[in-house]
Description:
Elements: H1 6-40, H2 59-72, E1 76-80, H3 86-97, E2 103-106, H4 113-119, E3 136-139, H5 149-156, E4 163-167, H6 180-193, E5 198-202, E6 221-225, E7 239-243, H7 245-255, H8 271-301, E8 305-307, E9 319-322, H9 326-338, E10 360-363, E11 376-380, E12 386-390, H10 395-410
Parallel strand pairs: 2-3, 2-4, 4-5, 5-6
Antiparallel strand pairs: 1-7, 6-7, 8-9, 9-12, 10-11, 11-12
Helix pairs in contact: 1-2, 1-8, 3-7, 5-6, 8-10, 9-10
Amino acid sequence: MLNKYQDLVKEVEKEIKPQFEKIDKICEKNSIKVIQSFQECNLQEMHLSSSTGYGIDEPGRNKIEEIYAKVFKAEDSLVRAQFISGTHALAITLSALLRPGDKMLSITGAPYDTLQTVIGIGKEVSKSSLKVFNISYEQIELVNNDFDIEKIQERLSKKDIKLVEIQRSRGYSTRDSLTIEKIEKAIKAIREVNQEVIIMVDNCYGEFVQDREPIEVGADIAVGSLMKNLGAGIATSGAYIVGKKDLIELCAERLTAPGIGKEIGPSLNQNTLLLKGLFFAPQVVASSVKTAIFASCILEKLGYTVSPKYDEERADIVQTIALGTEEKLVKFCQGIQKGSPIDSNVIPMPSDMGGYEDKVIMAAGTFTEGSTIELSCDGPIREPFIAYMQGGLTYDYGKYGILKAIEEMEI
Protein backbone atom coordinates (compact mmCIF):
# COMPACT_ATOMS: atom_id res chain seq x y z
CA MET A 1 0.00 0.00 0.00
CA LEU A 2 2.78 2.41 0.94
CA ASN A 3 5.43 0.67 -1.17
CA LYS A 4 5.44 3.38 -3.84
CA TYR A 5 7.07 5.75 -1.33
CA GLN A 6 9.91 3.41 -0.32
CA ASP A 7 12.59 4.99 -2.53
CA LEU A 8 11.58 8.50 -1.48
CA VAL A 9 11.61 7.48 2.21
CA LYS A 10 15.13 6.07 1.87
CA GLU A 11 16.30 9.29 0.21
CA VAL A 12 14.69 11.43 2.92
CA GLU A 13 16.01 9.38 5.83
CA LYS A 14 19.54 9.56 4.48
CA GLU A 15 19.24 13.34 4.16
CA ILE A 16 17.84 13.91 7.67
CA LYS A 17 20.26 11.61 9.53
CA PRO A 18 22.53 14.51 10.71
CA GLN A 19 19.49 16.26 12.21
CA PHE A 20 18.54 13.11 14.10
CA GLU A 21 22.01 12.96 15.62
CA LYS A 22 21.58 16.51 16.97
CA ILE A 23 18.21 15.58 18.46
CA ASP A 24 19.70 12.55 20.19
CA LYS A 25 22.29 14.76 21.92
CA ILE A 26 19.57 17.11 23.21
CA CYS A 27 17.55 14.09 24.35
CA GLU A 28 20.50 12.79 26.33
CA LYS A 29 21.01 16.15 28.10
CA ASN A 30 17.35 16.40 29.02
CA SER A 31 17.21 12.78 30.15
CA ILE A 32 20.11 13.39 32.53
CA LYS A 33 18.33 16.51 33.82
CA VAL A 34 15.20 14.47 34.59
CA ILE A 35 16.84 11.44 36.21
CA GLN A 36 19.08 13.61 38.37
CA SER A 37 16.03 15.61 39.51
CA PHE A 38 14.28 12.39 40.53
CA GLN A 39 17.36 11.35 42.48
CA GLU A 40 18.16 14.72 44.07
CA CYS A 41 14.55 15.07 45.22
CA ASN A 42 14.75 11.56 46.72
CA LEU A 43 11.70 10.14 44.95
CA GLN A 44 10.46 7.06 46.83
CA GLU A 45 7.92 4.34 46.11
CA MET A 46 5.66 5.88 48.75
CA HIS A 47 5.29 8.97 46.53
CA LEU A 48 3.47 6.89 43.92
CA SER A 49 0.53 6.51 46.31
CA SER A 50 -2.54 8.61 45.65
CA SER A 51 -5.11 10.60 47.59
CA THR A 52 -8.80 11.40 47.30
CA GLY A 53 -11.05 13.96 48.90
CA TYR A 54 -9.20 17.10 49.91
CA GLY A 55 -5.74 15.64 49.36
CA ILE A 56 -4.42 17.74 52.24
CA ASP A 57 -0.63 18.17 52.00
CA GLU A 58 -0.30 14.94 50.01
CA PRO A 59 3.36 13.71 49.90
CA GLY A 60 3.26 12.34 46.35
CA ARG A 61 1.77 15.48 44.83
CA ASN A 62 4.22 17.64 46.78
CA LYS A 63 7.14 15.53 45.55
CA ILE A 64 6.05 15.86 41.93
CA GLU A 65 5.97 19.64 42.31
CA GLU A 66 9.41 19.58 43.93
CA ILE A 67 10.74 17.58 40.97
CA TYR A 68 9.17 19.90 38.39
CA ALA A 69 10.73 22.90 40.11
CA LYS A 70 14.11 21.15 40.02
CA VAL A 71 13.81 20.21 36.33
CA PHE A 72 12.87 23.75 35.34
CA LYS A 73 15.32 25.38 37.77
CA ALA A 74 12.39 27.26 39.30
CA GLU A 75 11.62 28.25 42.88
CA ASP A 76 8.31 26.39 42.91
CA SER A 77 5.73 24.66 40.73
CA LEU A 78 2.05 23.79 40.55
CA VAL A 79 1.42 20.47 38.76
CA ARG A 80 -2.18 19.30 38.93
CA ALA A 81 -4.49 16.89 37.15
CA GLN A 82 -7.22 19.42 37.90
CA PHE A 83 -5.85 21.61 35.11
CA ILE A 84 -7.92 20.58 32.08
CA SER A 85 -5.60 22.00 29.42
CA GLY A 86 -2.80 24.42 28.71
CA THR A 87 -5.37 27.14 28.05
CA HIS A 88 -6.92 26.44 31.47
CA ALA A 89 -3.53 26.77 33.20
CA LEU A 90 -2.80 29.98 31.28
CA ALA A 91 -6.22 31.40 32.20
CA ILE A 92 -5.60 30.57 35.86
CA THR A 93 -2.17 32.22 35.70
CA LEU A 94 -3.38 35.43 34.07
CA SER A 95 -6.40 35.66 36.39
CA ALA A 96 -4.13 35.12 39.40
CA LEU A 97 -1.49 37.69 38.49
CA LEU A 98 -3.62 40.47 36.98
CA ARG A 99 -6.05 42.72 38.84
CA PRO A 100 -8.69 45.19 37.61
CA GLY A 101 -6.92 48.17 36.10
CA ASP A 102 -3.77 46.18 35.24
CA LYS A 103 -2.34 45.97 31.73
CA MET A 104 -0.80 42.98 29.98
CA LEU A 105 1.39 43.10 26.90
CA SER A 106 2.02 40.33 24.39
CA ILE A 107 5.35 40.82 22.64
CA THR A 108 4.75 37.95 20.19
CA GLY A 109 1.72 39.39 18.42
CA ALA A 110 -1.74 37.91 18.86
CA PRO A 111 -1.78 34.82 21.08
CA TYR A 112 -3.32 31.45 20.26
CA ASP A 113 -7.03 31.49 19.43
CA THR A 114 -8.34 30.09 22.73
CA LEU A 115 -6.21 32.53 24.76
CA GLN A 116 -7.67 35.41 22.76
CA THR A 117 -11.04 34.39 24.17
CA VAL A 118 -9.60 34.33 27.70
CA ILE A 119 -8.20 37.85 27.24
CA GLY A 120 -11.28 39.19 25.47
CA ILE A 121 -9.86 40.26 22.12
CA GLY A 122 -11.93 38.09 19.79
CA LYS A 123 -15.01 39.10 17.80
CA GLU A 124 -17.27 38.07 20.67
CA VAL A 125 -16.14 39.00 24.19
CA SER A 126 -16.84 36.36 26.83
CA LYS A 127 -18.53 37.58 30.01
CA SER A 128 -15.73 35.85 31.92
CA SER A 129 -12.81 37.33 29.95
CA LEU A 130 -10.08 39.51 31.45
CA LYS A 131 -11.43 42.46 29.49
CA VAL A 132 -14.74 42.33 31.38
CA PHE A 133 -12.75 42.65 34.62
CA ASN A 134 -11.12 45.86 33.33
CA ILE A 135 -7.78 44.23 32.53
CA SER A 136 -6.45 45.81 29.36
CA TYR A 137 -4.37 44.21 26.63
CA GLU A 138 -1.77 45.44 24.16
CA GLN A 139 0.46 43.62 21.71
CA ILE A 140 3.68 44.21 19.81
CA GLU A 141 4.19 42.30 16.59
CA LEU A 142 7.25 40.26 15.76
CA VAL A 143 9.49 41.62 13.02
CA ASN A 144 11.01 39.06 10.65
CA ASN A 145 10.20 36.30 13.15
CA ASP A 146 12.06 38.04 15.95
CA PHE A 147 11.25 40.39 18.81
CA ASP A 148 10.95 44.12 18.09
CA ILE A 149 13.39 44.99 20.87
CA GLU A 150 13.31 48.75 20.32
CA LYS A 151 9.52 48.96 20.49
CA ILE A 152 9.40 46.58 23.48
CA GLN A 153 11.89 48.64 25.47
CA GLU A 154 10.15 51.89 24.58
CA ARG A 155 6.77 50.58 25.75
CA LEU A 156 8.02 48.94 28.95
CA SER A 157 10.09 51.94 29.99
CA LYS A 158 6.78 53.62 30.94
CA LYS A 159 6.39 50.94 33.66
CA ASP A 160 2.60 50.74 33.56
CA ILE A 161 2.52 47.16 32.22
CA LYS A 162 1.95 44.50 34.89
CA LEU A 163 2.67 41.37 32.82
CA VAL A 164 4.47 40.53 29.58
CA GLU A 165 3.32 37.42 27.73
CA ILE A 166 5.59 35.48 25.39
CA GLN A 167 4.12 32.65 23.33
CA ARG A 168 6.93 30.27 22.42
CA SER A 169 5.00 28.28 19.81
CA ARG A 170 3.42 29.70 16.67
CA GLY A 171 -0.21 28.78 17.41
CA TYR A 172 -2.38 29.06 14.29
CA SER A 173 -0.12 31.71 12.78
CA THR A 174 2.48 31.59 10.03
CA ARG A 175 5.35 32.99 12.10
CA ASP A 176 8.24 30.89 13.36
CA SER A 177 8.26 29.43 16.83
CA LEU A 178 10.76 31.12 19.12
CA THR A 179 13.99 29.57 20.30
CA ILE A 180 15.20 29.86 23.86
CA GLU A 181 18.07 32.01 22.59
CA LYS A 182 15.65 34.59 21.15
CA ILE A 183 13.55 34.54 24.32
CA GLU A 184 16.68 35.06 26.42
CA LYS A 185 17.66 38.09 24.31
CA ALA A 186 14.19 39.61 24.73
CA ILE A 187 14.12 39.06 28.49
CA LYS A 188 17.53 40.69 28.90
CA ALA A 189 16.30 43.68 26.89
CA ILE A 190 13.17 43.95 29.07
CA ARG A 191 15.22 43.89 32.28
CA GLU A 192 17.38 46.74 31.01
CA VAL A 193 14.38 49.07 31.23
CA ASN A 194 11.99 47.38 33.66
CA GLN A 195 12.83 45.17 36.64
CA GLU A 196 9.29 44.86 38.04
CA VAL A 197 7.18 43.58 35.16
CA ILE A 198 6.20 39.90 35.36
CA ILE A 199 7.47 37.92 32.37
CA MET A 200 5.28 34.91 31.56
CA VAL A 201 6.10 32.34 28.87
CA ASP A 202 3.48 30.12 27.28
CA ASN A 203 5.73 27.09 26.97
CA CYS A 204 3.24 24.75 25.27
CA TYR A 205 4.83 22.44 22.67
CA GLY A 206 8.35 23.66 23.52
CA GLU A 207 9.48 21.59 26.52
CA PHE A 208 12.63 19.49 25.97
CA VAL A 209 12.94 20.48 22.31
CA GLN A 210 16.05 22.39 23.36
CA ASP A 211 18.28 21.81 26.37
CA ARG A 212 17.16 24.90 28.34
CA GLU A 213 13.76 26.15 29.50
CA PRO A 214 12.35 29.71 29.91
CA ILE A 215 12.97 30.02 33.67
CA GLU A 216 16.68 29.39 33.06
CA VAL A 217 16.88 32.48 30.84
CA GLY A 218 15.07 34.84 33.19
CA ALA A 219 11.32 34.25 32.81
CA ASP A 220 9.36 34.69 36.04
CA ILE A 221 6.75 32.06 35.25
CA ALA A 222 6.16 29.43 32.55
CA VAL A 223 3.05 27.41 31.74
CA GLY A 224 2.43 24.23 29.77
CA SER A 225 0.11 21.29 29.23
CA LEU A 226 0.68 17.65 30.15
CA MET A 227 -1.36 16.67 27.11
CA LYS A 228 1.66 17.82 25.18
CA ASN A 229 5.40 17.27 25.67
CA LEU A 230 5.84 16.54 29.36
CA GLY A 231 2.96 14.08 29.58
CA ALA A 232 4.70 11.91 26.97
CA GLY A 233 1.39 10.30 26.05
CA ILE A 234 1.27 8.71 29.52
CA ALA A 235 -0.29 11.43 31.68
CA THR A 236 -4.05 11.41 31.11
CA SER A 237 -4.76 14.93 32.33
CA GLY A 238 -3.11 18.01 33.74
CA ALA A 239 -0.84 20.97 33.20
CA TYR A 240 1.93 22.76 35.08
CA ILE A 241 2.98 26.23 36.16
CA VAL A 242 6.60 26.83 37.24
CA GLY A 243 8.33 29.95 38.45
CA LYS A 244 8.80 32.29 41.40
CA LYS A 245 7.35 31.05 44.67
CA ASP A 246 5.13 34.07 45.35
CA LEU A 247 3.64 33.91 41.87
CA ILE A 248 3.01 30.17 42.12
CA GLU A 249 1.16 30.70 45.40
CA LEU A 250 -1.12 33.27 43.75
CA CYS A 251 -1.86 30.77 40.97
CA ALA A 252 -2.56 28.03 43.53
CA GLU A 253 -5.00 30.28 45.36
CA ARG A 254 -6.81 30.99 42.11
CA LEU A 255 -7.01 27.26 41.32
CA THR A 256 -8.23 26.23 44.80
CA ALA A 257 -9.19 29.02 47.21
CA PRO A 258 -7.59 32.03 48.94
CA GLY A 259 -5.73 30.99 52.07
CA ILE A 260 -5.61 27.35 50.95
CA GLY A 261 -3.47 27.42 47.82
CA LYS A 262 -1.23 24.40 47.27
CA GLU A 263 -2.23 22.61 50.48
CA ILE A 264 -5.16 20.76 48.93
CA GLY A 265 -5.85 18.89 45.72
CA PRO A 266 -6.24 15.11 45.48
CA SER A 267 -3.99 13.33 43.00
CA LEU A 268 -6.73 10.82 42.10
CA ASN A 269 -4.38 8.01 41.01
CA GLN A 270 -2.39 10.31 38.72
CA ASN A 271 0.99 10.37 40.51
CA THR A 272 2.52 7.39 38.74
CA LEU A 273 1.27 8.60 35.36
CA LEU A 274 2.61 12.13 35.88
CA LEU A 275 6.00 10.87 37.03
CA LYS A 276 6.29 8.24 34.32
CA GLY A 277 5.27 10.82 31.73
CA LEU A 278 8.01 13.19 32.82
CA PHE A 279 10.49 10.29 32.91
CA PHE A 280 9.78 9.35 29.28
CA ALA A 281 9.28 12.91 28.03
CA PRO A 282 12.81 13.58 26.68
CA GLN A 283 12.66 10.47 24.47
CA VAL A 284 9.07 11.03 23.34
CA VAL A 285 9.76 14.68 22.51
CA ALA A 286 12.80 13.57 20.50
CA SER A 287 10.58 11.12 18.58
CA SER A 288 8.07 13.91 17.91
CA VAL A 289 10.77 16.23 16.58
CA LYS A 290 12.13 13.45 14.37
CA THR A 291 8.62 12.84 13.04
CA ALA A 292 8.27 16.55 12.26
CA ILE A 293 11.62 16.64 10.48
CA PHE A 294 10.68 13.63 8.35
CA ALA A 295 7.35 15.26 7.46
CA SER A 296 9.07 18.53 6.59
CA CYS A 297 11.60 16.92 4.28
CA ILE A 298 9.30 14.53 2.42
CA LEU A 299 6.48 17.02 1.95
CA GLU A 300 8.84 19.69 0.67
CA LYS A 301 10.15 17.18 -1.87
CA LEU A 302 6.54 16.62 -2.91
CA GLY A 303 6.19 20.33 -3.63
CA TYR A 304 4.55 21.73 -0.50
CA THR A 305 5.66 24.77 1.51
CA VAL A 306 6.74 23.70 4.98
CA SER A 307 7.87 25.44 8.16
CA PRO A 308 10.31 24.82 9.70
CA LYS A 309 12.36 23.27 6.91
CA TYR A 310 13.91 19.95 7.88
CA ASP A 311 17.37 21.39 8.61
CA GLU A 312 16.26 24.52 10.50
CA GLU A 313 16.60 24.86 14.26
CA ARG A 314 13.50 23.71 16.15
CA ALA A 315 11.83 25.51 19.05
CA ASP A 316 8.79 23.23 19.41
CA ILE A 317 7.26 20.01 18.07
CA VAL A 318 4.90 21.71 15.59
CA GLN A 319 5.31 21.26 11.84
CA THR A 320 3.25 23.28 9.39
CA ILE A 321 2.41 22.34 5.82
CA ALA A 322 0.73 24.89 3.57
CA LEU A 323 -1.63 22.74 1.51
CA GLY A 324 -3.28 25.49 -0.51
CA THR A 325 -6.86 24.21 -0.60
CA GLU A 326 -9.50 23.19 1.92
CA GLU A 327 -9.81 19.81 0.20
CA LYS A 328 -6.14 18.96 0.68
CA LEU A 329 -6.14 20.14 4.29
CA VAL A 330 -9.14 17.93 5.03
CA LYS A 331 -7.63 14.96 3.17
CA PHE A 332 -4.29 15.31 4.97
CA CYS A 333 -5.96 15.32 8.39
CA GLN A 334 -8.14 12.38 7.38
CA GLY A 335 -4.99 10.50 6.38
CA ILE A 336 -3.38 11.18 9.77
CA GLN A 337 -6.54 9.76 11.36
CA LYS A 338 -6.30 6.64 9.17
CA GLY A 339 -2.72 6.18 10.37
CA SER A 340 -3.72 6.34 14.04
CA PRO A 341 -3.91 3.37 16.42
CA ILE A 342 -7.38 4.32 17.71
CA ASP A 343 -10.47 5.36 15.73
CA SER A 344 -8.60 4.86 12.46
CA ASN A 345 -11.97 4.31 10.76
CA VAL A 346 -13.29 7.71 11.87
CA ILE A 347 -13.42 10.44 9.21
CA PRO A 348 -12.76 13.89 10.75
CA MET A 349 -14.60 16.83 9.23
CA PRO A 350 -14.36 20.61 9.78
CA SER A 351 -16.67 21.91 12.49
CA ASP A 352 -17.26 24.81 14.88
CA MET A 353 -15.33 24.58 18.14
CA GLY A 354 -15.46 26.61 21.33
CA GLY A 355 -12.74 29.26 21.50
CA TYR A 356 -12.12 29.32 17.73
CA GLU A 357 -13.55 31.84 15.26
CA ASP A 358 -13.11 29.64 12.17
CA LYS A 359 -14.21 26.09 11.63
CA VAL A 360 -11.43 23.69 12.60
CA ILE A 361 -10.56 20.18 11.51
CA MET A 362 -8.80 17.98 14.04
CA ALA A 363 -7.34 14.50 13.58
CA ALA A 364 -6.10 12.55 16.58
CA GLY A 365 -6.59 8.84 17.12
CA THR A 366 -4.97 9.10 20.53
CA PHE A 367 -4.94 7.00 23.69
CA THR A 368 -5.75 10.15 25.68
CA GLU A 369 -8.35 12.49 24.23
CA GLY A 370 -6.72 15.68 22.98
CA SER A 371 -3.16 14.46 23.56
CA THR A 372 -1.12 16.36 20.97
CA ILE A 373 2.17 14.70 21.88
CA GLU A 374 0.62 11.69 20.17
CA LEU A 375 0.54 12.11 16.39
CA SER A 376 -2.16 14.62 15.57
CA CYS A 377 -2.97 17.24 13.00
CA ASP A 378 -5.36 20.15 12.92
CA GLY A 379 -5.95 23.44 11.25
CA PRO A 380 -8.45 26.27 10.86
CA ILE A 381 -10.47 26.32 7.65
CA ARG A 382 -9.04 29.56 6.33
CA GLU A 383 -6.44 30.52 3.77
CA PRO A 384 -3.71 29.47 3.16
CA PHE A 385 -5.13 26.18 4.55
CA ILE A 386 -2.22 25.20 6.75
CA ALA A 387 -2.00 21.83 8.48
CA TYR A 388 -0.50 22.06 11.97
CA MET A 389 0.97 18.66 12.72
CA GLN A 390 2.58 17.64 15.99
CA GLY A 391 3.51 14.63 18.04
CA GLY A 392 4.54 11.06 17.44
CA LEU A 393 5.15 8.77 20.43
CA THR A 394 7.68 6.88 18.33
CA TYR A 395 9.32 7.87 15.08
CA ASP A 396 8.20 4.72 13.26
CA TYR A 397 4.54 5.24 14.11
CA GLY A 398 4.85 8.91 13.20
CA LYS A 399 6.40 8.12 9.84
CA TYR A 400 3.63 5.64 9.07
CA GLY A 401 0.96 8.22 9.86
CA ILE A 402 2.57 10.83 7.61
CA LEU A 403 2.77 8.39 4.70
CA LYS A 404 -0.91 7.56 5.18
CA ALA A 405 -1.70 11.29 5.06
CA ILE A 406 0.31 11.72 1.85
CA GLU A 407 -1.38 8.71 0.31
CA GLU A 408 -4.82 10.10 1.19
CA MET A 409 -4.01 13.43 -0.49
CA GLU A 410 -2.52 11.85 -3.57
CA ILE A 411 -5.46 9.52 -4.27
